[in-house]
Specification:
The protein has 297 residues and is of the alpha/beta class. The chain has helices at 47-59, 75-83, 98-103, 106-112, 126-129, 192-202, 212-220, 237-240, 271-281; strands spanning 25-27, 35-41, 65-70, 87-91, 142-146, 150-152, 166-169, 181-188, 225-226, 233-234, 252-254. 25% of the residues lie in helices and 16% in strands. It has an eight-stranded mixed β-sheet with strand order 1-4-3-2-5-8-7-9, with helices on both faces.
């Protein structure tokens, strides 16, 4: 770590072990640990997912911080996350150029690189996805990022001891997915110099990142370490690759594309996964995974 971290705590004089939060982030409280699970919530439509994720992390017995970087959330939603013990960190958009912002606006991105394998919800906001890079500005020694549309089913604290940068492959339709990464779960080591280099690489004339942060991170970390898919199991595996589904080793279940808190066209096919999410979201324990229904072969 460098010694040049700039503090923007609610109490600017507070420090922990030399780690400071950086400009562009505003934390309600100081960090309570040197390791944190972090998620990002950029609109109120993702609040049900974030609450379920925080609940599932609590159920895992983790001693790490649970931090929520957020934008555009109402006071009532923030209060719900705060009541679950989440550390709330308001985050600005990255300081990118007007050309970059226009290229990666929702309509422009979808027109140029449409999603054809699933249905993104109306509240999908591509430009906000790049705020994930502010993870490298946080006041922690090590972080594990988890998308807010995922739940943790088994303890995953050991990921903090994995190297930077680890992510699972983007497997949900075919074996070709093993050549791509999915940024729904990844490991990071916050550092201001890494963040500076990321910004310099991100926003260059003519650059287009069709899957936003995911495409960029795979480019920035070309030698990314592959996590087993069980640490970021995508829900479409249930439909498309049932032979890979094994409740005995699933650690993180990721509801990519359609969300379990919404009505959608795949709700019947994904019914058992939606019911599992709803039990945890409602405040219940993680159900007995060994007794869960298995996908049709």
């Amino acid at each position: 770590m460098t010694s040049e971290r700039i503090s923007q705590f609610s109490h600017p004089t507070e420090r922990r072990s030399g780690y400071r939060i950086a400009p562009g982030l505003r934390a309600e409280l100081p960090a309570r640990a040197e390791r944190a699970f972090v998620t990002l919530v950029t609109n109120a439509d993702y609040l049900p997912g974030a609450e379920a994720l925080v609940r599932s992390l609590r159920l895992s017995g983790t001693g790490a911080d649970i931090a929520v970087m957020h934008r555009h959330l109402p006071a009532e939603g923030l209060a719900r996350l705060r009541a679950l013990g989440a550390r709330l960190i308001e985050a600005d958009l990255l300081p990118t150029s007007q050309g970059f912002d226009m290229t990666h606006a929702r309509d422009a991105l979808h027109a140029r690189a449409a999603f054809t394998r699933g249905t993104k919800p109306d509240f999908h906001t591509p430009l906000d996805n790049f705020v994930k890079l502010r993870l490298w500005q946080l006041d922690y020694a090590r972080c594990v990022f988890i998308d807010a549309d995922a739940i943790v089913l088994r303890p995953i604290d050991k990921l903090f001891d994995f190297p930077e940068f680890c992510a699972a492959p983007n497997v949900y339709e075919g074996l070709d997915g093993f050549h791509r990464m999915n940024s729904g779960v990844f490991t990071a080591r916050p550092d201001p110099e890494t963040f500076r280099r990321m910004l310099a690489r991100l926003d260059r004339p003519g650059m287009f990142w069709p899957r936003t942060d995911q495409t960029f991170l795979q480019d920035y970390f070309p030698d990314w370490y592959g996590l087993p898919i069980q640490y970021n199991l995508l829900q479409y595996v249930w439909i498309n690759m049932p032979q890979l589904w094994n409740w005995d080793d699933i650690h993180v279940l990721h509801y990519q594309y359609e969300k379990p808190w919404d009505d959608h066209a795949k709700a019947q096919e994904l019914g058992p996964l939606i019911e599992l999410w709803r039990q945890i979201a409602a405040g219940g324990p993680v159900p007995d995974l060994a007794s869960q229904r298995r996908p049709a072969a």
